Amino acid sequence: MRLISAACIGLIFGFGIALSGMANPAKVLNFFDLFGTWDPSLAFVMGGALLVAVPGYRFVFRRSAPLQEHAFHVPQTRQIDARLLAGAGLFGAGWGLAGFCPGGALPALGTGQVEVFLFVGAASVGILIVRLWPRATPKQQAST
């Protein structure tokens, strides 16, 4: 049942990305071109997502646990560290240079464009590197 739910959610998300035009990197890049062909539609897509997500999270977190999991998996820290800043910087740079975020690139794989496959491949390698990179434990961080 979890796989069916995940597939349905992914299809709905992908349909929304495609419908909004956010699978087109030119549309995303035009959002960042403030003094040229600026296109504010990305801001409207993000605003629409927030209008759905904020009340949705408030509703869901009233439950003691998710429907298909034993507990909610939320970050345990609110600390802003170098690792977080580096990841955010790389994400933003990749998004601004390529016109894709990972969520928008996955539905765009259906276009068959080589650039999309290169982006998804590079993002996958980056995810692998981060997962394999050794992390300092809190005890190690305190001693440095």
Describe, in plain words, how this protein is organized in 3D:
The protein is an all-alpha fold and 144 residues long. It has one domain (2-139). Helices cover 67% and strands 0% of the residues. The chain contains 7 helices and no strands. Helix 1 crosses helix 5.
Quick summary:
Helix content is 67%, strand content 0%.
Estimate the helix proportion, in percent: 55-70%
Oligomer: single chain
Mean pLDDT: 87
* Major sheet summary line: none
Number of separate helices = 7
In the predicted model, the low-confidence regions spanning at least 5 consecutive residues are none
Q: What is the percentage of strand-forming residues?
A: under 5%
Order of helices and strands: HHHHHHH
What keyword list fits this structure?
144 residues, globular, membrane, mainly alpha, transmembrane, DUF6691, Membrane protein
Set down the secondary structure blueprint.
Elements (H helix, E strand, L loop, with lengths): L1 H19 L4 H8 L8 H20 L21 H17 L3 H7 L5 H19 L5 H6 L1
